[in-house]
């Protein structure tokens, strides 16, 4: 048997594989609402066992991890595949063109919550193992699966799970399929992610809202307190003014800079995707800002009256939510302490609350195994993949590179318009089937590499 036979088997089993995916998609698993989590973990365990994967459900301090393995030889190369079975809440329901938990095919795409993020990509990985085993008889390497149930809620307990189970999870490489492919249709090989710190700043005024005329110039306005504070935290050019914010940033290597210069860049198309009339920057600047620079973003500001018409009040309270995307080697705990120190110095009566954090991660581009993955992806898609040093967004990739201490790559299978987290989330049927094939190629190529 050869890899060419893989495509034939996938095509023959297309309907069977789609129905297996549909079964998973029909099962709700909303981590934020704790709805259907245990049922989905059990369903996933049964599917994995039916494939011949030794599987067990492992408890954490939150939602359980579904762990599976096929060990060819304890000394053989080991690939750990990471994914998640939990999904985002489906709201707003009325914006879905079909029920969010009823997989519906339209124009070659499967519409359902979790179709792209991450059940469709997770099931492609699992069904690839079944396909490869059936075609070749056995796997050429060891495979381990860690499929968690809290990714959509910040993976709060994944780090402690990995720390506790280092020996069980011992591997040579971690492989993740999550997120969309490049909007050009080319496959991605992503070598890291930005981290994140999410904080909330709260300001208090009087004990209740006051009339803006009768108490104007008398009652303090907490919205202005926050605005005045924010002006001390970032200048008009976007540079963050918090002392030490830019400490510990690891500069990109020459090879990473070269990768950024080689990435495809369509200024007009990117502007359209953002919703801008134009984008005033070149490709290298765009990708550097997206992958190598931290952000300081106001995600939301709430205070007073924002309904229809007028209501003349001095609000009694105000809140601003800020998310910062962090780059290697910034530490979210360190940045949080620096924000606390800044607020204490400038506006000590404003309360600061941490709402979430995740460390950044990056795998060196010049590792030999990265070249192996790139070659496998190229052979599968018959297209040169786009090698990017970091994703602009955040995934819990650091648990692999900093706790398990192994390289990690992300190869998304979903279409660029998957609408993950939004109404009408989807995955293209061909994307799903191509993901099965790509995983088979990755496993096969790693087998050749490990000989």
Record the SSE blueprint:
Elements: H1 3-12, H2 14-26, H3 37-51, E1 54-58, E2 65-70, E3 78-84, E4 104-106, E5 109-111, H4 119-136, E6 142-148, H5 158-164, E7 173-176, E8 188-190, E9 192-193, E10 195-204, E11 210-211, H6 222-231, H7 254-262, H8 267-274, H9 283-291, E12 297-303, E13 313-314, E14 317-326, H10 332-346, E15 351-358, E16 361-362, H11 368-381, E17 386-388, H12 398-403, E18 408-410, E19 426-428, H13 429-450
Parallel strand pairs: 3-6, 3-7, 7-18, 8-17
Antiparallel strand pairs: 1-2, 2-6, 4-5, 5-19, 9-16, 10-14, 10-15, 11-13, 12-14
Helix pairs in contact: 1-13, 2-4, 4-13, 7-9, 11-13
Describe this structure in words.
The protein has 451 residues and is α+β, with helices and mostly antiparallel strands. The chain has two domains: 3-193 and 361-450, Zn peptidases (Aminopeptidase), CATH 3.40.630; 195-252 and 292-358, Alpha-Beta Plaits (2-Layer Sandwich). The chain contains 13 helices and 19 strands. It has a six-stranded mixed sheet, with helices on one face. Strands 12-14-10-15 form a four-stranded antiparallel sheet. Helix 2 packs antiparallel against helix 4 and helix 4 (119-136) packs across helix 13. The chain is globular, with a radius of gyration of 24 Å. The two termini are 18 Å apart. The model has no long low-confidence stretch (mean pLDDT 96). This is M20/M25/M40 family metallo-hydrolase. Residues 192-349 form the Peptidase M20 dimerisation domain. InterPro entries: Cyt/Met_Dipeptidase, Peptidase_M20, Peptidase_M20_dimer.
């Amino acid at each position: 048997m050869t890899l060419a036979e893989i495509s034939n088997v996938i095509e023959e089993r297309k309907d069977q594989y789609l129905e297996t995916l549909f079964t998973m998609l029909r099962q709700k698993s909303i981590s934020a609402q704790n709805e259907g989590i245990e049922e989905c973990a059990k369903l996933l365990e049964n599917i994995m066992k039916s494939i011949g994967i030794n599987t067990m459900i492992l408890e954490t301090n939150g939602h359980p991890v579904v762990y599976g393995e096929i060990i060819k030889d304890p000394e053989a190369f080991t690939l750990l595949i990471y994914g998640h079975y939990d999904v985002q809440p489906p709201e707003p329901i009325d914006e879905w063109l079909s029920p969010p938990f009823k997989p519906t095919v339209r124009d070659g795409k499967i519409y359902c919550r979790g179709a792209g993020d991450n059940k469709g990509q997770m099931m492609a990985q699992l069904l690839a193992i079944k396909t490869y085993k059936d075609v070749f008889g056995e796997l050429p390497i060891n495979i381990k699966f860690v499929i968690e149930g809290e990714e959509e809620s910040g993976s709060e307990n994944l780090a402690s799970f990995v720390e506790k189970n280092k020996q069980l999870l011992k591997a040579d490489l971690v492989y993740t399929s999550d997120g969309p492919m490049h909007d050009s249709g080319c496959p991605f090989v992503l070598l890291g992610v930005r981290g994140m710190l999410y904080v909330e700043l709260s300001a208090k005024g009087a004990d209740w809202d006051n009339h803006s005329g009768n108490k104007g110039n008398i009652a303090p306005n907490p919205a202005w307190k926050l605005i005045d504070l924010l002006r001390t935290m970032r200048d008009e050019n976007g540079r963050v003014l918090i002392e030490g914010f830019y400490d510990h940033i690891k500069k990109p290597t020459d090879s990473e800079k070269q990768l950024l210069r080689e990435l495809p860049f369509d200024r007009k198309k990117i502007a359209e995707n953002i919703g801008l009339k134009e984008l005033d920057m070149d490709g290298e600047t765009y990708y550097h800002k997206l992958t190598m620079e931290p952000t300081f973003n106001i995600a939301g500001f709430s205070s007073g009256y924002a309904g229809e018409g007028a209501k003349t009040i001095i609000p009694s309270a105000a809140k601003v939510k800020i998310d910062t995307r962090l780059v290697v080697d910034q530490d979210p705990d360190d940045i949080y302490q620096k924000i606390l120190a800044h607020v204490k110095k400038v506006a000590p009566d404003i309360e600061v609350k941490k709402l979430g954090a995740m460390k950044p991660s990056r795998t060196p581009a010049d590792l030999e195994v990265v070249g192996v993955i790139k070659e496998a992806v190229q052979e599968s898609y018959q297209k040169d993949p786009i090698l990017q040093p970091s994703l602009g967004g955040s995934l819990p990739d650091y648990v692999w590179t900093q706790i398990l201490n192994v390289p990690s790559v992300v190869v998304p299978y979903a279409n660029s318009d998957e609408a993950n987290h939004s109404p009408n989330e989807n995955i293209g049927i061909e994307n799903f089937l191509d993901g099965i094939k790509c995983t088979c190629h990755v496993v096969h190529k790693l087998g050749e590499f490990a000989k």
